Amino acid sequence: MSAPSLAEWVVRAALAALAIGYVGGWIAAEYVDTRYFATVAPGLVGLACAWAATAAASGLPIRLPLGIASLVALVATGLADRLVPGGQNLFLPPGHRVPPYVAAIVGVLAFRVLFAQPPRATR
What we know:
Blueprint: H1 6-28, H2 37-56, H3 63-83, H4 94-114
């Protein structure tokens, strides 16, 4: 049996992250207009998307699954804004709408700091 191709690894990472992002977007919709959780929830969704993408694509360098997780976390944050009854503008006002998107990216980056294995030293 041959090793999976790059395309297969990418599809695995994307499908895993999309599943988590879809559920996370629905959960984050509950916290869109709250004071602190409007930023914390997308950060946790980003963290969960990073976990799912890296777990599904263990054969890839970590940057590629994290890039996929970043895109999915941003889409999940936008989904959360649209699922609020009446919908929300995705970017206006910027001071209120941009921080959740930044938190989603920070959540993905936090995965690398908190949970990813350090690179192995070459001898």
